[in-house]
Every structure is written in C-alpha cells, then in structure tokens.
Amino acid sequence: RQLLVSVKQNKKLMFVIPSLEGGGAERVAANLLKEFNATDVSITLVLFSKKRGYGWPDNVKVRYINIEPHKNLIYTIFKFFLIIFSLTKIIKEEKPFNILSFMDYTNIIVILCNMLFHKKTKITISVRTAPTLHLHRYSKNFLNSVISLLIRLLYNRADKIIAVSEFSRLDLIGNFGIEQKKVVTIYNPADINRINILAEEEISHQWFKEKVPIIISVGRLSREKGFDYLLKAFAIVKEKMDVRLLILGEGEEEGDLKRLSRELGIDKDVYFHGFQENPYKYMKRSTIYVLSSLYEGFPNVLIEAMTCGVPVISTIYNPCTNEIIEHEKNGLLVPVADEKALAESMFRLLNDEELRRSMSEEAKKNIRKFSIERITDQYKAVLGI
Fold first, then answer.
1. Using an 8 Å Cβ cutoff, are 339 and 232 in contact?
2. Following DSSP, what letter does each residue of 51-86 receive, concatenated?
C-alpha cells in the first residue's frame, strides 16, 4: 500500500499555457492549479511569458520560456520553433506522465514536441473555443488558416481532447475530423465558495456609494468580445434613463473603445477599470451583467456573475449559451452584434426589479454543476490522476 501511495505521489503533471495574465483560459488554469492536491501529483507550470494576473500555489514548480511577441513574420516563425526547442528541453528534464495544454497555439506546440521527441508522454489538450467560429467566421487571416489546418493534421495525435462545451465538442468532431472517442466535454469551473467570499470585499469606487444603476461587463478588451456593440447599446439606454457602465479588463482595443465612448457622448458614464483580480465584489453590487461577445468557447464569466447574484444578459453567439442560460428564466439572450436588441433587453431588465430578482434566484439554483470540485474531479479522471 505504501508503494502505491509513493508511486501516486511521484506522478508529475505539466501545465502549459502562454501566460496567467487575465483571461478565461488563464483563470481556469489558475483554479485547477489550486485544486489539484499536491499529495496526489506534483505539478510543473510552463509559461511563455512572465506577465502575471492570476497566482498559483507555492508548491507548483514554474518554468518560463520568456520570448516576447513581435509583429515581424520571420521572427514569429523563428519564435515558434524556438519555443518547441525550449519546451522539448523542459519536458526531457521534468519527465511528466501527462501534459495538459491550453489554447490552440500551445496545443499545436505541445503535440509537435511530443511527436518529434517524447512519444511516450501522454498529451491532453484543452480547446477553449469552437474553432469554426474563432478561426473562420470572425477572425479570417493567414495565421488562422494555418492553425485550422494544423488542428486537422495534429489534434488526433493527442491522447485526450477536452472541449469546454458540447457545441465545441461537436464542432471538433464534425468540422475538423477529430475522433469522437478522444473528445470529452468538461465545462469551465467556478470556485463558488471563493467567489462568494471575495464578493463580500468592500469597494471604494464612488459609483457604488450612489443610487444610479450600474451595468457591468468583464473581459479582455479585444474585438471578439463585442464591447463596441455594448457601448452603442449603452448609449441608447442612456438616452432614456440615468445609468452607468463599468468595464473590467485590458486589451488591444482599449484605445479604440475609449475613443468610441467619447464619440457617442457617454464617456463620463463609462469607466474602464482595467484588470481586477477580484471582479466579484463589483459584480455583486451591480444591477445587471452584460456579455456582448461575438463568440466564446464557454464563458466562465457568466457562471461567475450568476454566482454573485447579478442578473445576466448574453448574446447567443452559439448553442453553448443555452448550456448555461435558459432564456427568460435565469437570464436573457439577444442576437450577436445587434445593439438595438441588446439595448432593449438592458432597458427592460434595469426597469423590472421583480424580473431581476427571479432570474438571480433561478441562476443560483443551476450553478452547482459548474462547481470547481465537480469539474476538478472530471479533469482528474481524464488525466489519470
């Protein structure tokens, strides 16, 4: 029995992700790192950047492949192969029994490393979006075409593929030729107890000391999050009532979004508050939460907002939204990229306190299936821990 325990404790698992800066995949990885018991498995975390938003336990070993991004195509290609070389060296040194990687770019690198040098290491990849939407419908460019081809060529070489929704799983099988037996759906986790504790923290922001309703939205400030449509919808609502919009997050679109808010004449009532490690205290005290994304794999933030008790509105960017929200029962769904429909739902919910209360109550009944404990057990089963 002692021998079995010793073998179990000597198992090494490797996480590979570009960074633990703010973002949905990063939050999932950080949550899983905290939940995986150190007595079950030792963990090495490999990052491609030292930029940090989320933390990790002290007993996690961290290895960096710190290569700065660059717009030059030749450097980007060189960087790609340099990462493969560096990661291969780390894998040889660490000798993990299984590698869990996050996001398509990283997944491809890990599979190539294993094909070329480490064929005995098990590979589990986590696909964070529905590739058809991410790589074709909304983000057409040469690099995405290459990634799409590599998914078709390489993903079946992974031992297991974790899709974050049934929609994503079916997309991989139906549109990319991935073997059905390899793909399993595991939803993104929510650390419900931790969220509830953090939601009670005090807020110093002046808006929360006043009685004006607050709409909140959280996410990376990038094109696919649809914040431009949210700003346009907010401008419509603002013409009818006194209301404010709080946006938490950072990203390349921040300058353009601030400029748009000035052009719409709403900049005094829109506050870009940057990345917040604890967004929950803001969610709990806001009037409604809005997700305006053009597409998502599986939006952690909806589960987190529901946990905080704030009623939610979301664009119905793909059928996975229905895996979280039942329209008119625990939230409202609106079409993608339609600021008028979004504004109508926002105005309706802001002015119906009873609807907000009932949706909040229904949402809290349904979130247990996304609990970190339940999701961690599912990950452990797939990884063989």
1. yes
2. -BSS---TTSEEEE------S-HHHHHHHHHHHHHH
With the C-alpha atoms ordered 277, 58, 35, 21, is the resulting torsion angle positive or negative? positive
Q: What is the pLDDT along the chain (385 residues), one digit of tens a residue?
A: 444 444 445 689 999 999 998 777 898 999 899 888 655 789 999 999 888 778 898 889 999 997 766 667 677 788 888 999 999 999 999 999 999 999 999 999 999 998 887 677 899 999 988 888 767 655 567 777 888 899 999 999 999 999 998 989 999 999 999 999 999 999 999 889 999 999 999 999 999 999 999 999 999 999 989 999 999 999 999 999 999 999 999 999 999 999 999 999 999 999 999 999 899 999 999 999 999 998 877 888 999 999 999 999 999 876 667 788 999 999 999 999 999 999 999 999 999 999 999 999 999 888 888 999 999 999 999 998 8
Which runs of consecutive H residues, i.e. helices, occur in the chain?
2-9, 24-35, 73-94, 104-117, 131-132, 142-154, 166-176, 192-198, 227-238, 254-263, 280-284, 300-307, 339-350, 353-366, 372-383
Please, are residues 239 and 316 in contact by the beta-carbon 8 Å criterion?
no
Nearest CA among 215, 217, 220 for reference residue 53: 220
First and final C-alpha spacing in the chain: 17
The 10 Å CB-count burial string (b at 16+, else e) for 232-246 is bbbbbbbeeeebbbb
Measured CA to CA in angstroms, residue 109 lies from 16, 53, 372 at distances of 10, 23, 28
Q: What pTM did the predictor assign?
A: 0.82
Angle between helix 300-307 and 353-366 (nearest 10): 110
Closest by CA to 301, choosing from 164, 201, 138, is: 164
Greatest Cα pair distance, the chain, in angstroms, is: 70
Nearest CA to 383 out of 28, 94, 5, 11 is that of 11
